[in-house]
Amino acid sequence: MSVPKPLVVEPLTQAAFAPFGEVMDELGAELRMINEGTTERYHALAHVDTSGQHGKPIISLFRANRRPLPILVRMLERHPLGSQAFYPLSNRDWLVVVGLGEARPASDSLRCFRATGTQGVNYARNAWHHPVLVLAPIQDFLVVDREGPGNNLEEYWFDHPADQRVLSI
Amino acid sequence: MSVPKPLVVEPLTQAAFAPFGEVMDELGAELRMINEGTTERYHALAHVDTSGQHGKPIISLFRANRRPLPILVRMLERHPLGSQAFYPLSNRDWLVVVGLGEARPASDSLRCFRATGTQGVNYARNAWHHPVLVLAPIQDFLVVDREGPGNNLEEYWFDHPADQRVLSI
């Protein structure tokens, strides 16, 4: 009988996440001292890409509730017209699930990263990713994405259990 | 002898801040339920305006250190080519000082707002504002502003003590 396979949880690093977008992390960022030396600016952790088809960048707040465990990954989504950045507003680890593929994500390409509470991610335009997954009961995120004309959401559902994945947390 | 006058600290509200930009606050925001009902999206708290003169929006992290009290407001700055959004990453009150004026800010127009730890602001393009002021010893902010060609920073210094202001906190 075919059942969902487990998906290993990896640490989130810039190198590992490069195929999917940017990790927003002060580690490795360019540091500029500003405001008469009172402020450290960790510059350009992420680059917002929302201008296609007359899109405009907007800032929203997401309040994510934890899903019941074990978490079953049955779908991924992507935004063909813009990047989407998430940065946590409380210092708790959270999960980032992504996949590779053109017309659809390949189930064997799925990866799960454990982000710390001081790491954000900026999904690249067209990068397959799971909706936000939190480990705390509730966690807020600042989100920078796109508003504008056109269809900016595609979902792909894994109908076959063999293509689904269970997070081993 | 002319000395700096005190500047009263007011609560931060959308209405009071309207001449200077947007308040990012879930209160009054459009709420959308997404991700199979697991996530509340407080939609479009702020609109990023960085596209003039081939600018691109970027996301940075600012680590602000508290200035010695009393805080003397001696200058304001503005960004003629783009908006600049600040959202706090720890739940502590912070201060927002702004002013009105075309070529220079009028000292009698200065206002100081006390933002909560769950309120951000998005300074409008060309809105005069003071560099970030925190009440905690140290506070991080996610900042969405502009990268690109052109001069996007103007500073105005109040040389005369009568034009300067002391924050009464």
SSE order of chain A in H/E notation?
EEHEEEEEEEEEEEEEEE
How many beta-strand elements of chain A? 17
Rg from Cα of chain A: 17 Å
Strand % of chain A is over 45%
Shape of chain A: globular
Approximate helicity band of chain A: under 10%
Distance between the termini of chain A: 23 Å
Instruction: Please tell me the overall pLDDT of chain A.
Output: 96
Largest interface, C-beta closer than 8 angstroms, per-chain residues: A-B, 41 and 41 residues
What topology emerges from the helices and strands here?
The structure is a homodimer of 169-residue chains.
Chain A: E1 5-7, E2 9-11, H1 14-17, E3 21-24, E4 30-34, E5 39-47, E6 56-65, E7 72-73, E8 75-78, E9 84-88, E10 94-99, E11 111-115, E12 120-123, E13 128-129, E14 133-134, E15 138-147, E16 154-157, E17 165-167
Parallel strand pairs in A: 1-17, 2-11
Antiparallel strand pairs in A: 3-12, 4-5, 6-15, 7-17, 8-16, 9-12, 9-15, 10-11, 10-13, 10-14
Mind explaining what this structure looks like?
The structure is a homodimer of 169-residue chains. Chain A is an all-beta fold and 169 residues long. In chain A, 2% of the residues lie in helices and 48% in strands. The first copy, chain A, has one helix and 17 strands. In chain A, strands 2, 10, 11, 13 and 14 form a five-stranded mixed β-sheet that branches. In chain A, strand 4 and strand 5 (39-47) form a beta hairpin. The first copy, chain A, is globular and about 65 Å long. Chains A and B meet through strand 5, strand 6 and strand 15 of A and strand 5, strand 6 and strand 15 of B. Strand 5 (39-47) of chain A pairs antiparallel with strand 6 (56-65) of chain B, so a sheet runs across the interface.
